[in-house]
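<instruction>
Derive structure tokens from the sequence

<record> Sequence and structure tokens follow
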Amino acid sequence: MKRRNFITTLGIGTLAAGTLPLAASISSDPEELKQKKRSQGSEKEPLTETYSATDRVRSGMALGGIGAGSIELRKDGRFYNWTIFNNQPLSIGSPFQLLTAPRDSWEDSLLFFIVRYQEEGKDVKLKLLQISNSLGEAGMESIDYYYPWLSAVQNIEYKARFPFVNMKFTDPEMPFEVELEAFSPFIPHDIKNSALPAVYFNFNIKSTGTKPVNVMLLATQRNLVGYDVFEKYFTDEILENAAYKGYSQSVGGMDESAMSFGQMGMISLSPDSTYHVGWEHKHPYYEKLLVQNKLENVEVTEGRNKTDKKTGKKIANSGYRNKDQRMFSSLAVTRDLAPGKSFGHSFAMAWNFPNNFGSHNAESNKPVTGNYDLDQKTTKMQGHYYSNYFAGFKDIADYITIEKTNLTKLSRKFLNDFYTSDVDLFVLDQINSQLNTFITSSTLTKAGTLGIREGLTPDKSWGPNSTTDVAMYGSVPILCLFPELQKGTIKAHARMQTEKGEVAHGLGNDLDFTQQGTWGVYDRIDLPGQFVIMALRDFFWTNDLDYLKSIWGNVKRAIDYVLVHRDKDKDLMPEMEGIMCSYDNFPMYGLSSYIQSQWLTAMRSAAEAARVLGDTETEQKCTDIFSKGSALMDEHLWNGKYYRLYNDHHGEKGIDEGCLTDQIIGQWAAHLTGLGYLFKEEHVKSSLKSILAMSYNKGFGLRNCSWKPYPEMFPIESSDLWVDQANTCWTGVELAFASFLIYEGFYQEGLNVVKTVDDRYRKAGLYWDHQEFGGHYFRPMSAWAIVNALLGLSINQQAYSFAPKIPKTDFTMFFAFSQGTAHFIRKGNTVEIKVLSGKLVCKKISVSGINIPPNAKIKLAGGVLEANINNEGSTYIAMFPKAMSAEEGESIVISL
């Protein structure tokens, strides 16, 4: 039996990487097999084979643009979870499936690469660059039986760091190795180029033999336009110019307003590329491929369609096989490879499916099927952001060809800048892995409104878009890397707010529709405070006064809604009355630490924003509420070690001493914007220590909640709770809590929590698919807060505060801000802020925890900046008379 082995490594290019070798399960060495038989006592006993958990192929990195749909490349070389067609689970179109073949069969043959080679003096062979579990490979069935010249490679090495996947394909029969770099552009603060519906496939083939070999590299894609429509016929367009050859695939005879209508195709970035467009069967395509080292530049799509013999016109119901119409198209390059030499070549895949409809009826999570019910009473064309720039496939193909070098450079620069950070590799990998959700779970409308699905599985969506409670955590990287998108999401939530101030749990499938209470969940009491926190946090980070003015009325309505409708005992605090927050499985009553801490952050934020706007009435009201609420928090919820789960001090439910991991999540949110301590600092630190002591298990994770009488786990078997939220670990909460620990100076403790999460997902084979309510869950994007926490970074209206927690005298750390990215570099008592992209505009810079001499100067481009310098304890503060700016490539330096 041949051995097929996966080796997973972490890293990309020349970056330092950790390695996770996966056990080889089957050996093809005859002597080794004999030894195994002898060790079993008899040559007649069966061979023992071992299958390791790490052999599972359960997740991979997504390729595609923000809101453009994606395909998922896993370590077996196969492409999974296609969402480029406006289909479920990401959009509302029909679920993507080919009804006449099992899923595990047809997924092997949607997009694949083959190398045809002939070594001097030997027969031709073909190797499929993937390892399949089914009999369906390369558009055929049972190739190992009736087409022995074609077989899958035996070994794949897989590396992934978002947005790049690197794979190496080797086989004992191949006198060369094949390397693939696949990626879609991802460039912070560049929405257009990060939302492209395109993927690059960059190959390098290196000789390992001693004889010349003729190599033909082929890329094949199946035409999947109108995958859910039988009444259609296939069409194509051949594209040729001085830079590439390629094809665009589509269909005719179907409703062109249907969600699955559009174009998809590939280009080969060399003018001497060859093509065979429109084949369906191994005969004659594979027979010719076996004897010819170049494709014939033929277009045979008409052969996939039926025509009326009398009129000669194509018949829409014309699939070669009923309901399984098949049309493949291939591109290739051919090279002679000398011993010790290599050659590189690139393909690119792109798509254009413009008919992205959003539903805003009461059943908006149900897919649109059958006759595409596009009644404007229930659905609305929201389109794709990429449609602002491209009218069709050829426009996209031309653009990604011209811009390839620049898009590659900028995407790689972001990745390399990020990894040039002096913190343990697993921390950077864990943060990086969560950016994958930007691609798997995003919708970005033509108008520029972003939604992130709360959760996804291959067959359905779990929850609406950008759910408020989950976005409190998961929106951090959106704000840091694409602040305009984050502000757009908040504006979408503002459009859904009811007249009396209720805030929606999530956005429907139509992100640009003003629903105002007609759809969704509004009764959760955590939502108003979370909306206020995020809306104002986004202003503090961007200093966009026009944005603040646009949502200020919504902020005040959300506050007044709580005071008027959700404060029965009139103590100015929101009251819990059972299960009515993000923790929707165990009840809370009266004053709850989880709700109260967020309410206090909302009040502190609103008071600050009101001061900016000159709204003195609101400023005073929110200041008074904060002062009273902070006192109530200490009086009724502090138990001497931590803030208890709840205290129904005006009701009948008494006190619950549960220790919730999120008990002071509001303080975490306050750290991001420098709002200071909401509670006594010693109480905050004591709470964090108690949470670790009661709920953290290094071998498992950080539980959501613990109770002293149940030190191991809450006895759910004897309760009436139907989902175990208390005993389980929510990854997004764990990663946010890890950043909270780091902000508070518990550096190693924070890293320990991250390591536990990282190990758990590596072990599960789900590194690119974090689970909670469905997969690809939104909340774990909170991992980006770890970046900010490591620098003790807060940003508030162009005031940048740094209090680094990295326990080194010399280090570099990447961070992002509203207009760009930078490195914070410490060398002894000297600090440099080097702008890597965009522009940093600031009015104030403060640095704590570094012994900067009082007479240190602050400089830009070698010149001393005019600033009022103060030292307050260990904090160095520079106030500028007017906002200063540092451009890309410039550095702000604080030194003697």
